[in-house]
Amino acid sequence: MQQASLLEKVARTGVRLAAIRSLRRLLAESIDLLRDSFQLDSVAIYLLDDEKHRLLPAAEGDALAVDDRTAVGRAAQQQTASLASASEAHAELALPLIFEYPIGVLALRAGRADFAVDNIPILQLLADQLAVAIHNAQLYQRDVLVLASAERRAKLLEAATVVSRDVTTITELDTLLERIVDTICLVYGFYYVAIFLVEPKMRQWAVLRAGYGEAGRRMLESGFLLEVNDNSMVGWCVAHQQARIALDVGKDAIHFNNPWLPLTRSEMALPLIIGDDVIGVLSVQSAQESAFDDKDSVTLQVLGDEIAIVVHNAQLLADVQAAHRELLRTKTFEAIAAATGEAIHWVGNKSAPIRACATRTREDIARLIYMADTMLHQAPQEMRQHLYGQMIADAAATLDERIPSGRTLIAGMENRPFKSVRRLLSMESILEDLDIIQQSAETILNIKEDLIGPARETRPVRIQMDEFLDKLVASMAIPADVQVEQRYTPNLPRVYADARQLENVFRNLIKNAVEAMAGRSERRLTLETLPAKTGGLVTVKIADTGCGIAPGDLDRIWIAFYTTKGNRGGTGLGLSACLQIVNQMEGKIEVESEVNVGTTFSVSLPAPPE
Amino acid sequence: MEEPIRILLVDDERPAQRSMEKTLLRAGFDVNTASNVAEGLELFQQALHSPHPFDVAVLDLNMPNFEGIESPTAGLDLLEKLMQAQPTLPVIVLTAFDEVAKTKAAINAGARDYFVKGREEGLVELVNKTLAGGK
Questions:
Q1: A207, A196 in Cβ contact below 8 A?
Q2: Closest CA to A66 of A96, A108, A90, A32
């Protein structure tokens, strides 16, 4: 090589090398550039490791020691060019790469002639230029990293603020997890981020709860999950309760090849820990190798801890809500128990007279038969042989069998005055006792309807409320002096409900209304239908001019058996059953009342479009 | 002839009231009935100012109202009024179900005894026992 042109080449090469900022590119391209420009057999670059004991090749090859066993080692050791014979015709020139401090060694191989003594200083110049370029590239890389690091930390703070704001506004856990995943992805520019939560009971599966982008969406739809074992980063992370980082997934034994994420080159699985338990995993994947440095790991783990707290709080909230619902159910059971107590009381009340009436009836009938039989014994033969005579004798005989000393029932009666005996023994009395028995039994049977009515299976149909109300009122025996007023809004949509249940409700309300007006000077029952304020509903109002309900009692009227007492004749279960039925229909029932003026019940019922 | 014992029976449940009335009548008592507290009080006052006031009163504790106002203690209220006006009057309170608290309150207010509705013959025995105790 001619010196002048060599110098020129070196200069030109230097310029080109200086232009490459990326260290990796520099190392790769400079080898090719030098080999081609200077027509060398081969070029190798070695960089000193941190301890400055070993030389690591930029391309393939073995590391070399800084000693005098090789030309390269010698060049590094003595910080001067070192020439060695590679073979007969070939030589190796090792040039130290120095820029203020030793960086490494440039090793050139070529024909012996190329490494003439005069050329070596020029080639050292080349090495110096390369050293400068490498140094600059390293600086640049460091600067970029620092800058990137600072930027990322700033963005992370921003992301944390967004997340903590979201925590207070988004209570739906899955929505929140999606936001977190999107935020991390956008801030860091990662290829993919996901959050898995460990299934709490068996703790055998990590279930995907949020995933970035299209891949995330597809995986969520398919119910993606990973088993807690060593077959995936996520599974491993849960099993061992530790973070796992793979800077090159190709080389990591446990990377799970996800067909939806083909570009993953580095992956990180960070455990979400509450107390001693791993409740989930934050999975981060990058399309670049070695995408995560230590600082990233630390800051992402901090974020992971925050996510763990968020998830834990959301789960606590869900637990509280479930416990609250359970409590309501228990309160319902308490209410049912109380109502059952009332029901027992009520049934006891209603059934009390039945026994006495039955006994009395038996005795009274016996007395009548015995009286007739006594007369029969004093009657002529024909009468005793008459069919009726035989029937009476037969009846008396049966009584004698069945009621020991039954005849005592009429003992001494013969001598008493008619009026005195009739006061106690009469057909009227017998019929009355039988009526009492019948009424009591009916009332008890009716309460069965009220108790299980709401639970009965329903078959909803379309009902036009005007017609329904008119028919109902006609079927009820409303006293003539009660004025019935209809205020129906025309063309209301038809209500969708079970006809029998609806009848139970309105029959009850109308009956209450009529009874409330007992003894009032003005007795008016108003039936009104109108569209509800909320769409899709029809409101029916039953109003009376009765005694009204005191403000303190307005809430209590819905309690089962609230008014069980006598004269009402109702079961007292009515309004509570009505409330249940209307609620089940997904309607509403409300009451307004003014003492001494009247009461209005408003029932809103669903009327979906036909 | 000795006048029959006069019993005031106050109960708002018509069927139960009628049945008890008949049972007591057939046992030889003279019975006056009222279906609400106001009526009961009126009958009582009338009898009080007559030659023969009531000898025994039988009151249902579970009556709904007093003077037109719904009150869960209407029965007790009537009891107190009767005790004020005629302190020696034996009063038996009726309960359909063992309501311990109310019954205790009634005894504390002066009721002589209580009777759980059911076997009406028992009521006759109780009235007799109460009258015997009084004498």
A1: yes
A2: A96
Angle (nearest 5°) at CA A59 between A53 and A64: 25
**Six token digits for residue A265:** 């080159």
Q: Is A563 touching B (CB cutoff 8 A)?
A: yes
* Interchain proximity B70–A355, CB inside 8 Å: no
A565 and B CB contact within 8 Å:
yes
pTM equals 0.45
pLDDT tens profile B94-127? 876 657 778 888 888 899 998 887 777 789 999 9
Do A563 and B64 lie within an 8 Å CB cutoff? yes
Average pLDDT per consecutive 10 residues, chain A (610 residues; last block may be shorter) = 71 81 85 87 89 85 87 90 82 89 90 79 87 84 68 64 57 78 81 91 90 90 90 91 84 74 87 91 87 78 83 77 70 65 72 89 95 93 92 95 90 89 91 92 75 69 94 88 93 91 90 87 93 85 91 75 47 73 86 92 90
Chain A and chain B share a number of CB contacts under 8 A equal to 76
Mean pLDDT across B49-67: 85
Q: Which CATH architecture has domain A456-606?
A: 2-Layer Sandwich (3.30)
A390 C-beta neighbours (distance < 10 Å), count: 12
Name which of A507, A576, A510 is nearest A544 in CA terms. Answer: A510
Q: Does B103 touch chain A (CB under 8 A)?
A: no
Which CATH superfamily hosts domain A3-144? GAF domain (3.30.450.40)
Q: Which residues on neighbouring strands pair with residue A460, listed in sequence order?
A: A498
- Does the interface predicted TM-score (ipTM) exceed 0.90? no
- Residues of B within 8 A of A360 (CB-CB) are 19, 22-23, 26
- pLDDT band for position B135 (cuts 50, 70, 90): very low
pLDDT at A297: 79
Residue A42, strand partner residues = A109
Q: Could you give the CA distance from residue A176 to residue A422 in angstroms, rounded to a whole number?
A: 87
**Residue A312 CB partners (closer than 8 Å, separation 6+):** A274, A279
Closest CA to A391 of A413, A373, A364: A373
In angstroms, what separates the C-alpha of A600 from chain B's closest C-alpha?
Answer: 19
pLDDT at B125 (0 to 100)? 92
Q: What is the pLDDT, as a whole number, of residue A566?
A: 41
For the domain covering A170-292, report its CATH number: 3.30.450.40
| Interface contact flag, B119 A355, Cβ < 8 Å | yes
- Do A3-144 and A170-292 come out as alike in CATH topology? yes
Q: Are A492 and A607 in contact (CB under 8 A)?
A: yes
Q: What is the pLDDT of residue A179?
A: 82
| Calpha distance A375→A345 (Å, rounded) | 47
Domains in chain B, start-ordered, CATH in brackets?
Answer: 6-134 (3.40.50.2300)
DSSP H helices, B11-119, are: 14-26, 37-48, 74-85, 100-108
A349 touches chain B (CB under 8 A): yes
- A439 part of contact set with chain B, CB < 8 Å: yes
Tokens of A138: 């390293």
- pLDDT score, position A565: 43
First to last CA, chain B: 19
User: What is the reported pLDDT for B97?
Assistant: 60
How high is the pLDDT of residue A348?
A: 74
Lookup: tokens for A529: 């239908």
Do residue A429 and residue B13 have CB atoms under 8 angstroms apart?
no
> For the packed helices A574-584 and A499-516, what is the interaxial angle rounded to 10 degrees?
140
Q: Tell which residue, A244, A303, A286, A235, has the closest CA to residue A269.
A: A244
- For chain A, the structural domain boundaries read 3-144, 170-292, 342-446, 456-606
